[in-house]
Amino acid sequence: MALHSHTVLVVEDDPFIRLALAVCLEDEGYLVVEAGNVLEAIAVLGRPGKIDALVTDIDMPGALNGLDLAKLVRGYNNEIAIIVTSGGHVVADSDLPTGGRFLIKPYRMKDVFVVLRDTICTDAANVDFRQAV
Questions:
Q1: Cβ of 36: how many Cβ atoms within 10 Å?
Q2: Helix or strand or coil: residue 82?
Q3: Region 117-129: what's the mean pLDDT?
Q4: Which of the two residues, 5 and 46, has the higher pLDDT score?
Q5: Other Cβ atoms closer than 10 A to 16
Q6: DSSP code of 57?
């Protein structure tokens, strides 16, 4: 088993997709924190600890969606890698937060791993989200 050197917040309201993604990411050596909606994700981001990457679906229950979450996170932290996914939307790069990437569902887990490797900032310390608020 690989060392858990980076933490990924997975935000997905479908528990089967969330679990499958979390298990695959853990198998690749990531520490995974899960949330079922945007408000749960915001609660996670308010806890102590560092989040290196966010993988979020767009469609979520509640008033906020995954794009709202991605933009909120980017507004407070430029170091977090952001991946937005959707099976029902096609998102242009201009609609994503700076540096954000889009994957259409169904995506291959390999594609998620490649994007994470390409976007996680490994040589700079991430800011604790709570300190940026």
A1: 16
A2: strand
A3: 57
A4: 46
A5: 8
A6: E
Q: Is residue 120 part of a domain?
A: no
Structure confidence by residue, pLDDT tens digits, 19-50: 999 999 999 999 999 999 999 999 999 999 99
Q: What contacts 64, CB < 8 A, 6 or more positions away?
A: 38, 39
Comparing CA positions, the residue from 97, 99, 98, 101 lying closest to residue 115 is: 101
CATH of the domain at 20: 3.40.50.2300
Q: 68-108, pLDDT tens digit by residue?
A: 999 999 999 999 999 999 999 999 999 999 999 999 999 99
Q: Is there a domain that residue 15 lies in? A: yes
The answer to whether the Cα torsion of 117, 120, 121, 123 is positive or negative is: negative
Q: At what angle do helices 38-46 and 66-76 cross, to 10 degrees?
A: 20
When divided into structural domains, the chain yields a total of 1
Q: Are strands 53-57 and 31-35 parallel, antiparallel or unpaired?
A: unpaired
Token code pair at residue 101: 């990437």
**What per-residue confidence (pLDDT) applies to 128?**
45
106 preceded by cis ω (within 30°)? yes
